[in-house]
């Protein structure tokens, strides 16, 4: 009983403190890792496999394959291209899941369970324990530009100029000429370019910040590059606003907002 | 002769189409096949450190990857080089000495060696001698050179930029080995190209059109060749052609004639007719009864596809099994929001219709029928009633004889879930299906499991008063759970039920059901083995039947691809009515093949059963195709043979073949 109380306090303490993992490798207590392993084997292993390679038995019957944690490559992060994700990134992925995949939202797992999972998942790749990988270069989504017809229109210009349409299509439906050639991710799995006009097809785009981060960090392991070095911050916010408007039906693919259309009629 | 001409035209068309594809002109990107093994001009270049050299000087020392950029590029150039750098480091581990160069040339006549030096510095490659940045020494030769690679560039005044594709070309001994296109160069593709420029033979190229199936796949990481889905798919048309041809031959080759039956039949012939009808009815009930349970309302609730929990509905995958064991909640979670406070409607429905062709043979009597069954529907409702409390119910609506429809509540129960955490212990009350090793409502095949359908019964005045079979829902209470902490998972159920197939309980003796199943994973592929035991008593008004079932089961997934699942069940039954004892033993062995994820699955099964002198064998094989996760078509062929004896003691053989086409629509 006493051990359980201590373990719970340790979990909660590390839950508060341990949500960094930015400056150095974390060193969680053994109890946390054991707890994480127990939850992982029960909840996650059917898809991700007990060894985290993404080859659980469910992986053979789903199209979008589960993540292979052993490579240390994660698509959705708040860190620069090539960097590891932060603990908060992993926690968010577990909590929100991903649209258009078999990964549901596990927000109903207790925070202790999710935190323990984060620490256990990190044990699958040596990158997380390698001091050379740290400190992580975290991208802070500051300087957000409010959603407006002008910003959406600018975003559309950038979308065309940066040739996003080559993959994502002129109308954003994922039918660009490059997309038809077929893309694969770093694990050799086929990737479908999502239809940006369908919110259920875009894996993570609940907020404009989510989309801004994708443009800034790139999606490691996929053909989606980071545009941090080629677009200014302001341009990336405009582009994020345009994509957000497209996904959530606020604007048409040509950048015209629904409000503008109504006022024209 | 006509067939020969048609075949030649078909093959010729395919050949012409292939030729057309290979001669097709480039659109935005070079068509790789046009450029493979073509030589490139030996142009002179000025490197970023102002050295004049030629490409042949480079390829005579080492092969290289070549990419074309311009230093003022505000678009694809930087991300392309960054991803190239990242991918090369992933493959070679950032070694300084490689077996190849990376040559980055500017096609912009305005660029100078200093511009390229600055570009190289921006990318932190200044110290890297294996990365060679430069410009063309002779500007006049740029266009011709880039044309040789299928590379184009157009100046756009309005933005002050060149429009151009991103490409990386593998060059060995002055010849183009591979061309990669796109804004980001992934590790997988680059590894193949590096293999080739280093002189390793890569036997297969990725075909640059959408190819769903390949017969053989080359894995650049291991260098091994593996059989692909295409090899299996190749046999499917042959199989269906054979099957359709055989069916047509059997049906049309023998003209169906109504036997002129004499008005005065012999006793044996009358008995044969009765057996025949009973057998047909049994086969029809087994084959046509639809037990499919897969619940779109969970897909809606969690906003995920059906395939999160199903291999192909209704068959549950491992995650779905744990979901079910957790009281229809995500594993590891305990939900508390009741359905009336949720914004999701807790109902789902399934429409199903079927076409069947049946051929029955008994002795010299043969009969074929084509049937379009009227559309039936199943309504499901399930969800959370409170913390640790959930429910499940299913109503089946089927066409009634003589027209109209009839509805029946098939199962309805309340679950106290997670009494012990991690679904270690749950309690279920109401009508429910016993947790069998291979639940009949979760099977891909429409053909019933003979041994599960086998009925124990009591009669009164020659009429069946009550009966029990494992396949039918029962009324009672069940304690069941899943223990993930025992090796790779232990499933169990202990149930007390009335044992009369949810019909009126005719006695006050509860029956006992027990089942346990243990999983061990090898390379994440489950190997499962278990036993089940049922002990029952049925006290009718004239008979009392003490009966039991005992069985063991095993199931494996292939540990390599996990696409093949083989399962086995052996079951015995004993019925004691007075001094009379009847024994049944039998089982089944089958396989499911998940050919294309979320698209195509195949299944087959062999059932065998012996009751006294009566032997029944059944083979079924089928294919499922998904138009969408919730819309699918299933084709299935079943063959059944029963060796029995008439009341006169004469041996009799009955055969039945059935081909079914079923459509399912879930919403």
CATH topology of the largest domain in chain A: Cytochrome Bc1 Complex, Chain D, domain 2
Uncertain spans of chain B: 2-25, 244-291
Q: How many discrete structural domains of chain B?
A: 3
Count of DSSP-assigned helices of chain A: 9
Helix vs. strand class of chain B:
alpha+beta
Shape of chain B: elongated
Under the CATH scheme, which class of the largest domain in chain A? Mainly Alpha
Q: Mind telling me the C-alpha Rg of chain B?
A: 34 Å
Overall shape of chain A:
globular
Helix content of chain A: 40-55%
Helical percent range of chain B?
10-25%
Question: What is the first-to-last residue Cα distance of chain B?
Answer: 50 Å
Fraction in beta strands of chain A: under 5%
CATH fourth-tier homologous superfamily of the largest domain in chain B: Glutaredoxin
Structure write-up:
- By secondary structure, chain A is mainly α.
- Chain A folds into 2 domains: 132 residues, Cytochrome Bc1 Complex, Chain D, domain 2 (Orthogonal Bundle); 116 residues, Cytochrome c-like domain (Cytochrome Bc1 Complex, Chain D, domain 2).
- Chain A is built from 9 helices and 2 strands.
- In chain A, α1 packs across α4 and α3 packs across α4.
- The model of chain A has no long low-confidence stretch (mean pLDDT 87).
- Chain B is an alpha+beta fold.
- Chain B has 3 domains: 202 residues, Glutaredoxin; 179 residues, no CATH class; 142 residues.
- In chain B, the strands form 6 sheets. Chain B has a 16-stranded antiparallel barrel with strand order 14-15-16-17-18-21-22-23-24-25-26-27-28-29-30-31. In chain B, strands 2-1-5-4-3-8-9 form a 7-stranded mixed sheet.
- The N terminus of chain B is likely disordered.
- At the A-B interface, α2 and β1 of A face α4, α7 and α11 of B.
């Amino acid at each position: 009983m006493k051990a359980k109380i201590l373990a719970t306090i340790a979990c909660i303490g590390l839950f508060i403190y341990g949500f960094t993992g930015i400056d150095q490798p974390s060193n969680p207590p053994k109890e946390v890792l054991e707890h994480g392993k127990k939850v992982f084997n029960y909840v996650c292993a059917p898809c991700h496999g007990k060894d985290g390679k993404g080859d659980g038995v469910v992986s053979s019957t789903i199209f979008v394959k589960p993540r292979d944690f052993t490579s240390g490559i994660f698509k959705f992060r708040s860190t620069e291209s090539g960097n590891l994700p932060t603990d908060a990134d992993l926690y968010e992925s577990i909590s929100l899941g991903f649209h258009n995949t078999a990964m549901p939202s596990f927000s109903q797992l207790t925070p202790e369970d999710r935190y323990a999972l984060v620490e256990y998942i990190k044990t699958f790749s040596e990158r997380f324990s390698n001091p050379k990988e740290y400190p992580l270069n975290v991208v802070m989504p500051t300087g957000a530009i409010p959603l407006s017809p002008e910003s959406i229109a600018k975003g559309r210009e950038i979308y065309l100029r940066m040739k996003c349409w080559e993959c994502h299509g002129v109308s954003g439906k994922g039918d660009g000429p490059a997309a038809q050639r077929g893309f694969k991710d770093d694990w050799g799995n086929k990737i479908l370019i999502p239809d940006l006009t369908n919110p259920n097809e875009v894996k993570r785009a609940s907020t404009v910040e989510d989309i801004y981060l994708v443009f800034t960090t790139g999606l490691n392991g996929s053909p989606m590059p980071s545009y941090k070095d080629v677009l200014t911050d302001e341009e990336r916010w405009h582009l994020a606003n345009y994509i957000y408007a497209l996904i959530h039906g606020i604007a048409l693919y040509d950048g015209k907002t629904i409000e503008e259309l109504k006022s024209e009629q | 002769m006509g067939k020969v001409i048609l075949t030649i035209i078909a093959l010729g068309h395919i050949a012409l189409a292939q030729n057309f594809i290979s001669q097709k002109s480039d659109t935005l990107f070079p068509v790789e096949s046009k450029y493979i093994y073509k030589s490139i001009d030996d142009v002179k270049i000025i490197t970023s450190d102002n050295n004049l050299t030629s490409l042949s000087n480079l390829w005579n020392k080492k092969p290289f990857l070549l990419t074309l950029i311009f230093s003022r590029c505000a678009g694809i150039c930087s991300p392309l080089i960054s991803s190239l750098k990242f991918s090369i480091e992933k493959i070679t581990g950032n070694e300084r000495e490689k077996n190849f160069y990376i040559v980055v040339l500017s096609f912009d006549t305005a660029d100078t060696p200093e511009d390229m030096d600055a570009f190289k510095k921006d990318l932190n490659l200044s110290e890297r001698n294996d990365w060679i940045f430069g410009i063309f020494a002779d500007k006049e030769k740029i266009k011709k050179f880039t044309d040789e690679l299928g590379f184009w560039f157009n100046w756009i005044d309005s933005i002050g930029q060149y429009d151009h594709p991103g490409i990386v070309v593998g060059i060995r001994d002055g010849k183009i080995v591979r061309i990669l296109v796109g804004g980001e160069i992934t590790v997988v593709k680059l590894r193949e190209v590096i293999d080739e420029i280093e002189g390793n033979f890569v036997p297969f190229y990725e075909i640059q059109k959408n190819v769903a199936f390949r017969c053989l796949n080359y894995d650049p990481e291991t260098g091994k060749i593996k059989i692909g889905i295409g090899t299996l798919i190749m046999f499917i048309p042959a199989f269906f052609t054979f099957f359709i041809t055989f069916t047509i031959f059997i049906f049309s080759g023998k003209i169906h004639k109504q036997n002129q039956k004499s008005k005065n039949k012999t006793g044996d012939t009358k008995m044969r007719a009765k057996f025949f009808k009973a057998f047909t009815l049994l086969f029809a009930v087994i084959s046509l009864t639809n037990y499919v349970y897969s619940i779109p309302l969970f897909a809606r609730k969690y906003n995920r596809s059906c395939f999160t929990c199903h291999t192909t509905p209704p068959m549950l995958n491992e995650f779905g099994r744990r979901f079910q064991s957790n009281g229809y909640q995500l594993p590891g979670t305990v939900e508390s929001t009741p359905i009336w406070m949720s914004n999701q409607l807790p109902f789902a429905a399934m429409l199903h219709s079927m076409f069947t062709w049946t051929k029955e043979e008994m002795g010299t009597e043969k009969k074929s029928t084509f049937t379009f069954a009227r559309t039936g529907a199943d309504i499901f409702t399930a969800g959370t009633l409170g913390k640790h409390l959930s429910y499940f119910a299913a109503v089946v609506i089927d066409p009634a004889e003589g027209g109209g429809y009839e509805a029946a509540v098939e199962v309805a129960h309340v679950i106290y879930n997670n009494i012990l955490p991690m679904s270690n212990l749950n309690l279920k009350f109401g009508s429910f299906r016993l947790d069998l090793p291979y639940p009949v409502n979760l099977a891909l095949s429409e053909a019933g499991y003979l041994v599960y359908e086998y009925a124990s019964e009591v009669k009164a005045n020659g009429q069946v008063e009550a009966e029990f079979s494992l396949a039918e829902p029962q009324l009672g209470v069940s304690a069941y759970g899943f223990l993930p902490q025992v090796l790779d998972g232990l499933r169990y159920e202990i149930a007390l039920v009335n044992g009369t197939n949810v019909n009126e309980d005719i006695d006050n003796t509860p029956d006992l059901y027990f089942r346990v199943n243990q999983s061990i994973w090898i390379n994440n592929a489950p190997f499962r083995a278990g036993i089940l035991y049922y002990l029952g008593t049925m006290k009718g008004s004239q008979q009392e039947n003490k009966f039991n079932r005992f069985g063991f089961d095993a199931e494996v997934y292939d540990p390599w691809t996990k696409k093949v699942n083989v399962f086995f069940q052996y079951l015995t039954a004993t019925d004691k009515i007075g001094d009379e004892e009847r024994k049944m033993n039998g089982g089944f062995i089958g396989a499911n093949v998940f050919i294309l994820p979320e698209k195509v699955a195949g299944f087959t099964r062999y059932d065998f059963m012996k009751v006294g002198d009566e032997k029944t064998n059944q083979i079924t094989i089928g294919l499922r195709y998904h138009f969408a996760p919730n819309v699918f078509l299933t084709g299935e062929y079943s063959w059944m043979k029963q060796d029995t004896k008439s009341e006169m003691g004469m041996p009799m053989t009955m055969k039945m073949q059935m081909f079914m086409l079923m459509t399912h629509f879930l919403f």
